[in-house]
Amino acid sequence: MDDLYLNKLMPEFSDQEIFADFSLSKLHLRIKRENRTRISGRVYLVKGDSDSLVRVPSFQNLLDGSCDGNQDVGIQFLESNFNPFEYSNNSQEIRTDVTGLEVKCGNRTLPVSGLSEPIDILTRRKNESLDGSVYVFKTSVSLGNLTVFEFLVGKEQSTLGFYIDFNSTRFPQDVSLFLCKDCVPTQDAFNWTATLPVSEDQIVSVPWINGTNLTSSPYQWLLHGEEVDITGYDVGNLTKFGIGVQFGSDLDLDEEEIIDFSLTVFESSCVYFDEEVHLWHSDGCEVGPLTNMTHIHCRCDHLTKFAGFVPPNPLNIAEALSANVLENPAGMVLVLAVFALYLFGILLTRKADRRDLLKAGVGILPGHTLNPRKECQYVITVYTGFRGNAGTTAEVTIVLGGLTNESIPFKLRDEKRVLFEKGSVDSFLLSTEEPLGELSHLRVWHNNKGYSPGWFLSQIVVTNRARNNTTYFLCNRWLSVEEDDGKVHRIIPRAVPEDLKKFRNLFLAKSARDMNDGHMWFSVVGRPARSPFTRVQRLSCCLTLLYSTMLTNIMFFGRGDDFEPPEPIRFAGVEINPPISLPQIMIGVQSAAIILPVNVLIAFLFRNSGPRGDKSTDKKAQKDGAGDGGKAKSSLPWWTAYIGWLLVWSASFVAAFFTVLYTLSFGRAKAEAWLVTFLTSFMTDLFLMQPFKLLIVAVIFALISKTPVEDDEPAAEPLESGEEFLHPVTPDSNKKQDTCLDSPLDESTLAEQRQKSAEKRKRRAAVLEVLVFGLFIAVVMATSYGERSPMAFYMTQNVGRQILETGDVGFFEIDDIPSFWTWITTGLMPALHVRSWYNGRVNPDAMLLTDMVTYPLGPVQLRQVRLGPGQHCAPPDQMLNVTSRCRVPYTLSVADTQNYSLHWVTVNTTANGTDNTVCSPSSSQTSRELHNCANNVSPWRYTYASLTDGIPYFGQHGSYISGGYIAWLGTTDESMTFLKRQSWLDENSRAVFIELILYNPHVNLFSVVSLVVEFSNLGGVYKSSEIVTVRLIQHDVILLLVLRGVLALFLLYFVFREGKSLLSRPLEYLSEFWSWVELLVITIGFSTLVIYFYTQNIIDEVAEQRRNGNSVFHLYKSSVSWFQISTYLQGFLICCATLKFIRLLRFNSHVYALSMTMKKSLKPLMSFMFSVAVILFAFILVMALTLGSKISDYKNISSTLQSLLLMMLGSFDFDALSSGHRILGPLVFFLYQVVMQFILLSIFMVILFDVYENEAHSENPHDIGFTSYLKETAAETVQRIKNTSFKIERKKPKMERRFSTNMIPKIYSGLRHLNSDSTI
């Protein structure tokens, strides 16, 4: 804010010392531009609001030549009536207002220290600041005698103050003070002494404002902390201090003068907030001589401190260990919650690791006859993508094509594994009858069977065992009738090196590998099945990483805010503001230096530790693998994994332990603030920033790198005891493969399946849209009705009965100004201020209604709207002999906005004047109740309407804005009597608003009562009342906040969906009626949320203002007004959403028939309604002309239209019609009923019935077979569960458990066995 004002706004003004003040209830701020050449002292405060000030000897000395001459300079003075650094460990010692001063040079804050002349700071003490640290001794003593008093101290290194107040005939009176620590002082035995009054050269005078000075008292003695040296031992062991007071000397003992005096002993300390360590310190500051019981005077030689290296937050381990965890459990709860989630995650990841054992390795096709010639053997690795629902339940078939031959179709099956799941890598060993030569292409398809046949194929890698060369076939497309081009058969050519280096392929491969194997958090879920780095190990690394991050985060919590923003960089005439400063970079580097080494080492040990198995078997396998052309990846010894586990547990414990200690040392407020900040930043980084970073890295890699992404060959992975890594060859594998060859589905079958799939998607989309929008309506209704109370109606009725129907004259019986005052005196005031209970006992609380449960919140407000002075009209010349007076109706053009004195006497002030005669209450209690000069409010001063909260009122004889002449009624009749005697209401008064706020704590309801009395220019009085009962303070505020959060998510989803539709087909979208309904729902939904949070801010401000004792009537009224607007918008939102929901149900035949009837009957009904309007207007004219001057319901066109419409509904007064005109009244009534009820209404129904009859038998194009769809979906779900259970049981390996071995040796062992036998 200071940069904005000093550098953007203030340079437009020529005044060198222009300033801007900002004042809140507990915060005052002044931003002031300064003249750098001014050498005189300066005093800074917010005039009219500040209780504190800062005086600097010279502004030029503060700059100290560190600011360029072409930059604006200024200050920012801040006074806070609360401690903004409450989180600091030693903030409990702060019991005064907090004052701050910053020196600005451009957009920089200059560090100020080592001043030759100190800065004077005067700060107001809080009322409780001297509790337990002040002693007041009052006594009488003879002149010359020594009187001793004892006291205790309460704070280390504090300054002791002694103030003498006395009466004596001898003036000035010498007073000797003797102070002794842990002893009784005498004239000869003491530790410190002083003689008062102090000499004139010791009296300190500080220049203040308007040429005045602040001067220290000559009868006050300050003993600074470094002199008295109060230690912790003195405070803890209650060391007594003795102070002796002697008026005069021993020579005055013979005189008999008695002196009455009081001695005040108080402690004071001056501290500043050190932003490096976030603690309050006292170095460089001392207590000044102006310190007294109400203010503390501090003299400091600096404003701020700065440093280059960023130290972490200090930690007192002994103090933290002695803290009570139950009083500050935030850190402990977070650490234990993370560990509990880790244990639960271990169960899930361990189960997933066991499932991965079945996926790893090379599978052999059941019944396949393996050709012993290695040039005919191929290892096929199929990569399924990571898209949503990328896996398939269909049977996949592949055909290899070479330059010389093409293989037969191979069904890729495995009885013991679940294949082709999302992100899976499945390997198969197969052979052809003859060599195919160099591979050129392959064909792959599936039979489109199962509950989820769609398949996203990433790539297929084929390795020939003889040549050991690898061929890539890139796909990255769907094989699905529901996605892409709807094909389930692909011919994939061989990928040449240029294909592997294309941006799309590099990006997809890099992002997939980094997301599912490289990223520690995401790889816990997407870890490749063949990776030796298990999910359990990855989750353990995440635990250590999280605890380490928590530790570094809390170590440097708040440290980045201690430093000023970096200097702007100027290059080629352009000024660039760096987004991060060097200290913030240092914090990042220091945090990384703490986190990275141990976590990188743990991941390295887990990823590269070798398996624990038989050494001879390992060597033999490695030898065979090398003979087959394979490459054995070097690994660390198997026992390094245990070192990794040791590091996991030790690093996690240390980080968690010190995190808890830091939270205990922070205090509860700061610890909870850190907890919220950490969780928010961690979730944001994990789910928003990290995926974005991975995508950016993948994009950069794809743009720069020309090397294809290859999977790392996994090291031999040790298994836990009792697990098998690869199923061995069994006799059951010798079954012959099916003799019938598979072939792709023909186009006619695919077309039929595509049509069925399209219909299924359409049904699914329709049902999903109905469910989503139905849930949206449920959330809106729960939000709307959740904040309302069924007791609001009863409270409204009760309040109306107590206020409107009491007194000698009821509210609706008011017919002139005297009767208005009678109702106020006998009805309103007694109803609001009950003097006694039902049993006759006096009620000590006068602010109570007659029901004894409802409380007025503040006095009653009367607001008058009146005509301006002068003659606004004149009677015709022919009638001047009758009267010359003329009164006009009220309009805004003739409204009065001037200021007056008593009896509406005009004063010489403008509407914005500040003449004291306008607000000059007398000393009587009555006038003080009516006037509020502090807020510039007087019954004769016009108060203008608020631009934001002023909602106009539309009455029967005018429209009134929220401004007017305001008077407040007290708890007695004197205020009303005073207003009546001073003729506050007269012939120019046009409306009086009686407004008050009531609260019933038993049902937690607020009632805003607004009563209006209009005095028309015809002499009539028109009354209206409105009582709005709402629940402003909710008990279930958390639930309502969650509901509104869910509502916001729904609205954001609708915005995304509608925005997508708008961009895809803008003209067609904007021409649809229901598109505008959707946009209306979104707009109203966001409007309700904005108004809700704005209303909550007003309610929070109400609570704050009430605590400060300020008037809050206008805030209550504003909050209720906005609450009503929110209610209207919610009702309109529910209406529009319900209409939209009915349209979504158009697949129902009855709903479709209804909607089509309304649509197709619109044109004939519009033509018919034009005829109805003509006939109705004819009746309106007849009734208005014949009965308008006699019956109020027909006084004008609008009221006549309303009466005739009500007459159709059966609401009419036949006697009034007859009395209006004995013949025409009944005649027109019967004629109107016959024409409207019997003729026109019948024609209207015939039109609707005719259209409905035609549409009821028409075919519904939106019919989706909802019932059949639900039955089919339920049957498919049941079948899916059965198939899944059966597949798991069927593919579960049935073998004897034995000692664990690794993957690679078993693969090579199986391959050697295959080479020695022609069939498996």
UniProtKB/TrEMBL annotation:
Q: Where are the transmembrane segments?
A: 330-349, 539-558, 585-606, 641-666, 686-704, 765-785, 1037-1056, 1076-1094, 1125-1145, 1165-1187, 1229-1249
Iron is among the record's keywords = no
SMART domains named among the record's database cross-references? GPS, LH2
Q: Which SUPFAM superfamilies match?
A: Lipase/lipooxygenase domain (PLAT/LH2 domain) (SSF49723)
The membrane topology noted for this protein in its Swiss-Prot or TrEMBL record is: Multi-pass membrane protein
InterPro entries assigned to the protein according to its UniProt record, in alphabetical order: GAIN_B, GAIN_dom_sf, GPS, PKD1_2_channel, PLAT/LH2_dom, PLAT/LH2_dom_sf, Polycystin, Polycystin_dom
A GO MF label: calcium channel activity
Q: Which UniProt keywords apply?
A: Disulfide bond, Membrane, Signal, Transmembrane, Transmembrane helix
GO BP annotations of the record are:
detection of mechanical stimulus
**Localization, UniProt:** Membrane
Q: Where is the composition biased (Basic and acidic residues)?
A: 612-626
Which ranges carry the GAIN-B domain?
Answer: 192-316
One Gene Ontology CC term in the entry: membrane
Region feature Disordered, mapped onto this chain: 612-633, 724-744
Pfam families per record: GPS, PKD_channel, PLAT, Polycystin_dom
Q: PLAT domain location, by residue?
A: 376-493
Which protein family is it in? Answer: Belongs to the polycystin family.
Q: What is this protein called?
A: Polycystic kidney disease protein 1-like 2
Q: Name the species this protein comes from.
A: Branchiostoma floridae
Gene (UniProt): LOC118404369
